[in-house]
Amino acid sequence: MTEAKLIRLQKYLADCGLGSRRFCETLITAGRVEIDGKTVTELGTRVDPATQRVVCNGTPVAKEALVTILLNKPPKVICTSDDPQGRTTVLDLLEDLPERVYTVGRLDFMSEGLIMVTNDGNLAHALMHPRHHVEKIYKLWIDTPLGYHQLAKMKRGIPNKGETLRVLDIDEGRHTRQGVEYTITLGEGKNRHIRRMMEHFDKKVFRLMRISIGPIQLGDLKPGEWRRAKPAELKFLRKVIAGNKSVS
Fold this sequence. Notes:
Layout: E1 7-8, H1 9-15, H2 21-29, E2 33-35, E3 38-40, E4 46-47, E5 54-56, E6 59-60, E7 68-73, E8 102-104, E9 112-118, H3 121-128, E10 136-142, H4 148-156, E11 158-160, E12 163-165, E13 169-176, E14 179-186, H5 193-200, E15 205-213, E16 216-217, E17 226-228, H6 231-247
C-alpha cells in the first residue's frame, strides 16, 4: 500500500454514507468497525479501500454514488436515523431511496422546513464545520412583536447556558393570524438556537421554518416532499463554502 492511497477510516465511512465523520468516529471507538477481519478502535487508523475490506456492524462497507436530497421536514418528525420511541424520522420519508443517507445537521422536533440528506461525507463535513459559516434563513411566527432593544440585543448576542446566541439579521414582516412574522438569518446555528432566544424574551413560538441553507432554497416543496439536489445547486453551494473558508 502506498501512503497516497490511505485515507482516514472515519472519512471513508462517512463517504460510504454511514453518517457524519463525528458519528463515524463513535462507530470506530465503540468497536463496531473491522478492517480485514480485525476490530479497529483507533481514530488515527487509515485504510486503503482498493485493497482492504472494511466491515461495520457485520456488513461490508463500500462507496455508493453520491446523492444529496432536499426535503421539507414537517413538524413532529425527527432528524435521527431511528427513534426508540417509534416516532417518524426523516429517513422514514425517504423509504424508497436506494442509497444509504443521513441528515446534515438537524431541525428540532416541532420545527419544519429545509433539511439536507446525503451520503456525501465531504459536503456534510464542510456544512457542519463552524469555520465555514454557511448562512441559514428561517421564518418565525411569535405571539407579540419584538422591541427595538430586543432586536438589537439579538444581533449583539445573548449569553445562554455557556453559549452566545446571536443572529446576523432579523426583519419584521406581516402580522397575521399565525402571529408576528420574522425573517431571521443565522451564521452559525446552535441547538434550538432561535427557540432559546425567544424563551429569553418570553415569546411564544407558533411556528419555525427553515427556508434556505446558503444558496439552496426550500422553494415550493410541500411538507414531507423531497427532491434530489441539482448539480448546479451543489456547485454553487460548494463555491459558497470555499469562499467562506477563505475569509475565515
